[in-house]
Amino acid sequence: MKFTVARDVFADAVAWAARTVPNRPSVPILAGIRMTTGQGVLELSSFDYEISTRTEVPAQIDAEGDILVSGRLLASITKALPSQPVECTLEGNKLSLVCGTAHFTLATMSVDEYPPMPKVPQVGGTVNAQDFAHAIAQVSVAASSDDTIPLLTGVRMEIDDDSITLLATDRYRLAMRKLKWEPSQAGLSTALLVKARTLNDVAKSMTAGGKVELAFDSSANAPVNSLIGFVAGARQTTSTLMDGDYPPVRRLFPENTSIHAVVNRVELLEAVRRVSLVAEAKTSVRLGFDEDKLVLEAGQDDNAQASEVISSTLEGEPLRTAFNPRYLEAGLAALDTDYVRFSFVDAAKPAIMSGQKEAEGQVDPNFRYLIMPIRFGL
To answer: At what angle do helices 129-140 and 196-205 cross, to 10 degrees?
Structure first.
């Protein structure tokens, strides 16, 4: 094997493929990145039996080959190389890497022992890359980081014809986001449970272009641990789907709410950040909604207390409630409108946060964030 490739292109491709290389692989061979050359293209791939990545970059191929080298080491080296073409040559069981005056030699691993890469399922349709990334960012904040209930570390993707609904919850909050996509066939209907960290990785690394292709098995008899695939340009990744019955979280959204408050989102976000400085772990930020103001309070002892008053409008009876400040801040940050609308049944029941572009405008129907209140003494 011998090839020459542009340094920036090579470093970017190696860094992307190395993302899925495990820190502590169950099998040493999984620590590698596979490099295959042929017909003017260098292919880089990695696989840990759960997530696979594959990308192609143009290269001058002098001799074709197929090798496996340490992924994280290769990523560290390529990141530090000078801005000159990179020439890689296989010499026995060593890879020689030359860039300008820099020269590295890396040991290779047995390609024969490396597991075969999974095939990307049939493409089910395409979605706007930026819309998809934004929707993932909004919803994934509500996914659980506690592996004791694995199902809640995932994001449920409900596909119904030309719409996708993303849902995530950690039992204390629930985020739901709807967006449009272009299915490959009309009337497509299925539900997929994808690890939140996988979707976040897709949002960060595969949405620079115009479209992302979603690939999955939509048949009713799809096997357990079937795959979902994401394809964007020369990059593709697959991940095993999570197995299990996701809780029926949609019913948590109340059909009717009688109390509504509208607040400037940025002002409230900044106020929450300030008053929560005195909120100790597992304590709340208290919110008092009145006719034309919102009072925020935090701290419950003589050590430190904080309060702040900001403008708001209220429809319905005055209300006092309290929320986990971290969950409240995450919901406010996930919104992308100038105003936030709180909808309540009463103070003891969950509140729904949604966005409004104007103080008296229409509610954005595509994103809702439900947050559980915390009981506090009156």
So the answer is: 140
pLDDT given for residue 204 in this prediction? 87
Look at residues 125, 122, 127 and name the one whose alpha carbon lies nearest to residue 217.
122
Longest dimension (CA), the chain: 79
Q: How many CA within 13 A on the CB side of residue 190?
A: 20
Element (H, E) at 199: helix 196-205
Give the model's confidence band at 282: pLDDT under 50 very low, under 70 low, under 90 confident, else very high. confident
Examine the pLDDT at 201 and tell me if it is beyond 60: yes
Of 78, 81, 61, 82, the closest CA to residue 70 belongs to 78
Question: What phi, psi does 97 have (nearest 5°)?
Answer: -120, 120
Report the C-alpha dihedral over residues 285, 291, 293, 297, rounded to 10 degrees. Answer: -20
User: In the Cβ-directed half-sphere of 167, how many Cα atoms lie within 13 Å?
Assistant: 19
Q: Is 302 exposed, middle or buried (CB count within 10 Å of its CB: 0-12, 13-18, 19+)? A: exposed
Structure pTM? 0.91
Q: What sign for the dihedral angle of Cα 35, 38, 40, 41? A: negative
Give yes or no for residue 195 having a pLDDT over 50.
yes
| Cα separation, 278 vs 66, whole angstroms | 58
- Provide the 3-class DSSP secondary structure of residue 209: coil
Helices (H), 55-190: 71-80, 129-140
